[in-house]
Amino acid sequence: MLFGFAQAGVQKFTVVISGVATTQDYNFTPCYPITGEFYHPDPNVTRVRMEYPVDPSKFFMYPVNRKVHIDFHEKQMKRGDNPYSDFVAEDDYGVEYGRIRMIFWAPDPKKDNECKNATTS
Length: 121
Known about the structure:
7% of the residues lie in helices and 42% in strands. It contains one helix and ten strands. The longest helix is centred in the middle third of the chain and has 8 residues, at 71-78. The radius of gyration is 14 Å and the shape is globular. Residues 1-8 have low confidence and may be disordered.
């Protein structure tokens, strides 16, 4: 886990969702509440755009090096949907510095909020 992780130690774009850190495309069931943290070694990166790949005009902006609540996906998962997004590291001008696609599988309603890792490349 990278909570409280100093950015100086980050070697590549890193996304931390509900305590699970990844530097590549990832597929899993995160625990609620769904939180996000975003780290990048390049100091030019100031934000992360969470975009819906089918329609990139639908997106949310998040700061780097700070914990945020990702309630958009949390609400979808609680409805039983399996949302996915690209997390795009970028600077203030929208120049891309890395991209990680994540699929958020809704938990089985019988098991409620069981976290399950199912890494895919």
